[in-house]
Amino acid sequence: MSERSFVIDPRDWITQPFTTCPFCSEEQFGLLMVSRHGYVKRCRGCMKDEQFSLPVIEKRVLYLDQFAVSNLMKVLHPEHRYRIERRGDAEERFWLDLFDRLERLVKLQVLVCPHSDAHWEESLLAPQHEELRRMYEHLAGDVRFEDPGMVKRGQVLRVFEAWLDPGADRGPVPRRNVLAGNTDGWHDKLQVEARLDLDPGTAEALRAARAGRHDGLGRAAKVWRENPRRGFEAYFRAEVAAYGEAELQAYAKRLQAFMDVLDARRQLDADLVFATDSQILIMQMRERLVERGVPHEEQIGKLREFFASDAMVQIPFLRIGAGMFAALAVKNSLQQAGDPNRGMVTDINVVSTYLPYCDAMFVDSECADLLADADRELNLGYRAEVFSNRSREELLHWLAGIEESIPPDHVDLVAQVYGKTWLRAFREIFATAQS
Fold this sequence. Notes:
Blueprint lengths: L14 E5 L9 E7 L2 E6 L5 E5 L6 E5 L1 H11 L5 H4 L3 H19 L3 E2 L4 H8 L4 H12 L3 E2 L2 H17 L14 E2 L21 H25 L5 H31 L7 H4 L3 H15 L4 H12 L8 H18 L10 H11 L5 E3 L2 H14 L6 E3 L4 H13 L3 H11 L10 H6 L1
Parallel strand pairs: 5-6, 5-9, 9-10
Antiparallel strand pairs: 1-2, 2-3, 3-4, 7-8
Helix pairs in contact: 1-3, 1-5, 3-15, 4-5, 6-10, 7-12, 8-10, 8-11, 8-12, 10-11, 12-13, 12-14
């Protein structure tokens, strides 16, 4: 095995802007690091440093759908730019303008574009997966949405506990529980990335799972088209009712698998090592019942009672997701929908799970239409702005409004901390990565 070594000069970590050192008077007092609420400057000459505090900030959260990440990568990447250029000058100008505005607001510490598991999974299935990953991580920094299963469990448990203890509503799951990383803090200049070699079968497993979800939605669409039409409310209620039963069935199947292992009818394999989302959810719900003295033999019945109750429509992801699927069912029953695309299930899952924690989302037009239809029927009550390709000029206007609201002294402070060239658009992101 070959060995490589390199030497790091501690002075290399000290970068511009350089000012007069208060200790030795040399013009080498530069930026060492930025933390959540402060920064450190150190002299490259005497190596003494000083800490400074930074004001508390609260950033807007914008979620970018995979199609947006893909187009932003293409317009900046020398080898893929032609795919945007052949759509015309207006298309190229939009995506370049969008990148410039997004990156500027991120660098101004007023906006964050978190990445999610959906970004990772969909990028992994693409030939340019490393380029896509670099794109979404560049705009996200270290901020990401938690695993959707974890977010959903949090929402279900909040509503379940309120159902068990009327009058003790804990309120919605807060944004801090859903976003990981330095969401509302100042970001460092340095961004460190690490890559681990994936199991060769990971991509194929993801591709198979995606195909399975797509086939399932295709079968549902066929049923919606071929059976007598039902109203939105009927489709919505059916979607809500299906959720609880599916969780219980998945939990029961998991328990049976463990019983088969104990009875030597099945080998313990990797599939059983890690708990599934359904398994974790039902176990956590049963723990709540144990805390309230519900006997073991009555717990599943109590869960069925909850899953059949009106409280289910208070679960944000379920209300939004079931509403979007109901809207899709109506379109199919009216013969107004084509075959669902391969990313439809993922898109609905992402929107329904993360929408309550965003200030805005930029999603594909079909997804935005389904959400708008569901909102008209259910008055979903989300506060986020939802943009699509058809309303992308409004997205640019929204971003411009954020910048217009930034006090001048905040912009001056950013330049003071990070340097005057910090806000220049880094369109060379892929040229740098390849050099």
